[in-house]
Structures are given as structure tokens and as C-alpha cells.
């Protein structure tokens, strides 16, 4: 079989956090299996090719320079994919072109745009643009759920969310396949440091609940001023808001920001923290707590969504 993968979001820097990581590890894992199938990877640009492991087998690369969530994606991407005459294409996110003819499967990570519609980048736009984009999201999502051969949900929580919002989707069409991590390792002796250092890794969208984390941290610092908090993620307007919040709350000397960290920097952050904190209100899976647990770092997490 010739199997395509929409890999335009490949890499956590390009794709943004967990989604980019998911695409990267999916591609690298499939490419190394040595199976008889041929993979066709659709990349956004040639630079992404350097992220793919050099041990790839039976892999062809195609450039599909269309950004996600755009009209160009809807109009152009389907033609790029369909002309490859693939047996199947995997979309690792819901943004599937409406006019795609190639059979496809799709991964749904969460339905946060339905459950917490203000927790997305489109909320930085005008109300009219937000309304149009939200309408387009619902149209595309319904098309994806109806037309896909199989729906991959990354947790039972995500599967339940799909069935709650779209009860007409056959439950047997949804396969729960958990995410996983690679690349972090430890000798098991993550000696939890004498410095009282808390760590959060992830984006700063509203549903991540970082404002509430800062409120709790302020109470903690008032009782013990030796605590520090490190927030690591991708630089954007939401993190700028958190930085402003930190300055106004008097926590500037106790909160550190590490923006756009490399994998090596992330590993060091996990290894040098004494506790990982993750207060998210809504999570499709939650890779960062799993990364922390993989090296023996204790985790304090909310009990929301998939996190239990």
C-alpha cells in the first residue's frame, strides 16, 4: 500500500507543542518499521526533512506549502494529496480538506474548541473573524467525523467527548490509541533538588489554567519565599499575558520563563525540578505529565478530562 501522512505540523517548534511532537514521533516510528508499505510524507517545507530520522525506510517526501486552518489548505492540499494516488492518508489533526477524494483516517486529540471555545489562538482576532473561523471548524469537523474510515482518539476522554457532541458517530468507528513519549531518559536517580523548584511545561492557552496556578503559587511563596516556578513553552500572546500577570502580582523574582526550549533544555528542566505542576481544565491526553513521570519527577495535576 501507498500510505500518506499529513506531516506539515512535524516537530514541536513548527507544529506547536504536543501536536507537533505527536506527528514527529508517529512519522519516525512508522518510517523505521521496515514494513512493505510505502510512506509518502507531506511536509510544509524542506527544513522539516532534517527532523526525520535518517533510518527511514520506504519513505518519499512531498512539499505541501499550505498553512493549516486556511482557505488555501482547503483549496490546494486536497489536489496535492489526491494526485499521489494513495491507498490511504492519515491526517493527525482535524483540519482535513473538504474536497479530499483519497480515503483517510484522522486523529482527534480533543474537542477543546467546542468545550472551551475561548481557549484558542483565534480568540485574538475580531469577534466576526472568530465567529467565521469557529463556524468553519464545526463544518470541517463534522465532515471529518462522517467521511473518515477510522477515527483515532488519543484517550477514552476524547472518545467520550466525540460521542457526547456527535452521538451519530458509530462508537466502533473510534479507536483509542494512547500517545507515548521517547527521548527522555534518566538513571532513576533524579535526586529531587534542595532548591524548591516547581515546573510547568506547555502552552498558555486559557484552559491550561495558568492564572489559577499563579494564584496558588503566590499563596505558597507567601508562606515559604524559597520556592521558584519555571514556566516553559512557546512564545506567543498568551504567554505575554502571563508575563504581565507575573509582573503585576509581585512574583517577578520567583517565576522564570523559558520560551521555545530545545529537547535538551526540556530534559534539563525536568531533571532539575523538584515537582511538576499541571493545572489544566481540559486535556485530550497530556504529554508533559507523562514526560515528567518517565524520569521519576513527582507530578501534581488537576483531575480534569484525560488526566486521571
Condensed summary:
The chain is 36% helix and 18% strand.
List the helices and strands and how they pair.
Layout (H helix, E strand, L loop, with lengths): L1 E5 L5 H20 L6 E6 L15 E5 L7 H12 L5 E4 L12 E5 L3 H4 L11 H21 L3 E3 L2 H10 L8 E3 L20 E5 L8 H14 L4 E6 L3 H13 L5 E5 L3 H10 L2 E4 L8 H8 L4 E3 L7
Parallel strand pairs: 1-2, 1-4, 2-3, 4-5, 5-6, 6-7, 8-9, 8-11, 9-10, 11-12
Low-confidence stretches: none
Major sheet attributes: 7 strands, parallel
Give the name of the CATH superfamily of the largest domain. Glycogen Phosphorylase B
CATH top-level class of the largest domain: Alpha Beta
Please provide the count of β strands.
12
Q: What would your notes on this structure say?
A:
With 308 residues, this protein is α/β, with parallel strands linked by helices. It folds into 2 domains: 2-176, Rossmann fold, CATH 3.40.50; 197-301, Glycogen Phosphorylase B (Rossmann fold). Helices cover 36% and strands 18% of the residues. The chain has 9 helices and 12 strands. The strands form 2 sheets. Strands 3-2-1-4-5-6-7 form a 7-stranded parallel sheet, sandwiched between helices. Helix 5 (156-165) links the parallel strand 6 and strand 7 (174-176). Helix 6 (210-223) runs parallel beside helix 7. The longest helix is centred in the middle third of the chain and has 21 residues, at 127-147. The radius of gyration is 20 Å and the shape is globular. The two termini are 38 Å apart.
Amino acid at each position: 500500500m501507498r500510505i500518506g501522512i499529513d506531516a506539515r505540523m512535524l516537530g514541536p517548534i513548527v507544529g506547536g507543542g504536543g501536536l507537533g511532537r505527536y506527528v514527529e514521533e508517529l512519522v519516525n516510528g512508522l518510517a523505521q518499521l521496515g514494513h512493505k508499505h510505502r510512506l509518502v510524507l507531506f511536509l510544509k517545507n524542506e527544513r522539516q526533512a532534517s527532523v526525520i530520522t535518517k533510518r527511514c525506510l520506504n519513505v518519499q517526501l512531498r512539499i505541501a506549502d499550505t498553512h493549516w486552518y486556511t482557505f488555501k489548505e482547503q483549496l490546494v492540499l486536497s489536489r496535492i494529496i489526491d494526485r499521489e494516488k494513495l491507498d490511504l492518508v492519515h491526517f493527525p489533526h482535524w483540519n482535513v480538506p473538504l474536497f479530499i477524494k483519497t480515503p483517510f483516517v484522522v486523529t482527534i486529540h480533543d474537542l477543546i474548541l467546542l468545550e472551551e471555545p475561548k481557549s484558542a489562538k483565534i480568540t485574538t482576532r475580531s469577534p466576526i473573524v472568530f465567529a467565521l473561523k469557529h463556524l468553519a471548524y464545526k463544518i470541517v469537523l463534522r465532515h471529518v467525523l462522517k467521511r473518515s474510515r477510522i477515527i483515532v482518539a488519543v484517550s477514552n476522554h476524547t472518545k467520550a467527548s466525540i460521542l457526547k457532541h456527535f452521538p451519530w458517530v458509530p462508537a466502533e468507528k473510534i479507536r483509542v490509541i494512547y500517545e507515548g513519549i521517547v527521548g527522555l531518559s534518566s538513571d532513576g536517580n533524579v535526586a529531587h533538588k534542595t532548591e524548591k523548584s516547581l515546573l510547568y511545561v506547555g502552552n498558555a492557552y486559557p484552559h491550561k489554567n495558568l492564572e489559577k496556578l499563579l494564584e496558588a503559587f503566590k499563596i505558597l511563596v507567601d508562606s515559604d519565599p524559597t520556592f521558584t516556578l519555571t514556566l516553559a513553552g512557546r512564545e506567543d500572546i498568551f504567554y505575554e499575558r502571563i508575563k504581565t500577570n507575573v509582573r503585576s502580582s509581585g512574583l517577578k523574582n520567583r517565576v522564570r520563563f523559558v520560551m521555545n526550549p530545545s529537547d535538551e533544555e526540556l530534559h534539563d528542566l525536568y531533571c532539575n525540578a523538584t515537582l511538576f505542576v499541571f493545572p489544566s481544565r481540559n486535556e485530550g491526553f497530556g504529554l508533559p505529565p507523562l514526560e515528567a513521570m518517565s524520569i521519576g519527577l513527582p507530578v501534581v495535576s488537576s483531575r480534569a478530562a484525560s488526566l486521571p
